[in-house]
Amino acid sequence: MTEFSDLGLSPTTLQAVADTGYTTATPIQAQAIPVALAGQDVLGIAQTGTGKTAAFTLPLIDKLASGRAKARMPRALVIAPTRELADQVASSFEKYAKGTKLSWALLIGGVSFGDQEKKLDRGVDVLIATPGRLLDHFERGKLLMTGVQFLVVDEADRMLDMGFIPDIERIFKLTPPKKQTLFFSATMPPEITRLTKQFLRDPVRIEVAKPATTNANITQRLIKVPSSDPKAKRLALRTVIEKAAPETGIVFCNRKTEVDIVAKSLKVHGFDAAAIHGDLDQSQRMKTLADFRSGALKILVASDVAARGLDIPAVSHVFNYDVPHHADDYVHRIGRTGRAGRTGEAYMLVTPADDKGFDKVIKLIGQTPEEEVLDVDYTNAVTVPREGDRRRGRGERPGRERGERGERSGRGRRERAEAAPEAEVVETAAVEAAPEAPVERAERPERERKPRRERSRDRAAVQTAEAGPVEEAAPPPRPSRERPPMPVRGVQPVRAREDDDDRRVVGFGNDIPAFLLRAPPKLAKVED
């Protein structure tokens, strides 16, 4: 085990680390910090939850301790893929730099541009930002990146998944070529490898674990759900949570709409749960995350926005409500538990529709989680479509419920009708038992209807006969459409003579003007 005092950090930084309660460095910290202090580029590869944030924050504080920030010209730039991760990096920087005079600013979406611009105008040493908001400030002319001495890219593989690689390439080109780059990632896809070869200068590769490996402190379990119906999955999830009794837990879903539905279902059944995903307001996201960190919230239902980089050490359980679309995301999801040497448990619900994605996860991690059987009766949890819905093509796929599209689509009304089948049967029987009353209609004599054109002619004839004879008036003369010629400035119109009525001028023809037949004048001979 390596102590922080052996890594070459300044006494001020060591005191800040000691105040947080840490004394021993993790493997990625023990290897990356001395290299970063020496001024070399770093390519750090480590599984999530191993302390990558402190591995670049601590040396950055030491190297920036001397110097002064300039307005709109930050000295260090830290790029993070999500707002939550950027905010977490800012919190770490504030915690470790409290003994220095360094300033910092956080540039993320969902926050007023004006407040961020005021900080930039005063000058900051460290700028922590997401790629989109950073480039927005640059294009507004509020930010210059010519003074960047240190560039940190955190969770680079997440940048790739979110489509930020073109923005990262542009940021690299906008910053000076002679800068120190610290590049951290949990996995190394080919696109990330290409990026490091293009922009890093002889980096020291530090790999403390194989890419896409799970933490040994995490116990992984598998729950097989016999039906793909969402109601059956939610019943299985509630049963697992009740059985596991987590201190705090995160439930991961693939879709944002599913996050809202699952969170609402858990709250309805008495669980202390709240949702967090990218479509929520930034203030609400930050408050939900703060409540979860403080322990005021017990269960966080999240999309993959919370799967990368969030350091919440007290998470005891992770529940994968959906098998992730990308196998790498499974490693990041369960990495939210078992952090900083703690133990954790991870559950994954697998339905018959998840076989392909589940096989990819097993192939990636190289092991099959232990299967746990739940004593659950799924009979009443499966939505059975009515006969009328089958004829209309509904009910073929696993049922959506009111939470996804609401009452407006009419599905909520159908569910309430399904909840009371006895009333429906009684009403149907009453209708069938009612005798049909005979309806008497008066017979009308049929008359032959003429075609519409003949009826119009008849009406016109009647109107003419009633009006009497009318003298036909001569039609007014139609106005001529010929327009007079437009006058041309400086040219007098030519008046035709009386004998030129039937003749037009089309050109000279065979007549040659006399001035063209004249011989050219002879030039006088000039004697020398």
TrEMBL record:
Residue ranges, annotated region (Disordered): 378-505
Boundaries of every Helicase ATP-binding domain copy: 33-206
Annotated GO CC locations: cytosol
Transferase as UniProt keyword: no
PROSITE patterns for this protein: DEAD_ATP_HELICASE (PS00039), HELICASE_ATP_BIND_1 (PS51192), HELICASE_CTER (PS51194), Q_MOTIF (PS51195)
Domain DEAD-box RNA helicase Q span(s) in chain numbering: 2-30
Ranges of Basic and acidic residues composition bias in the record: 386-419, 438-460, 495-505
Keyword Transferase included in the entry's annotation: no
A molecular function GO annotation: nucleic acid binding
Family named by the database record: Belongs to the DEAD box helicase family.
Protein name: DEAD-box ATP-dependent RNA helicase RhpA
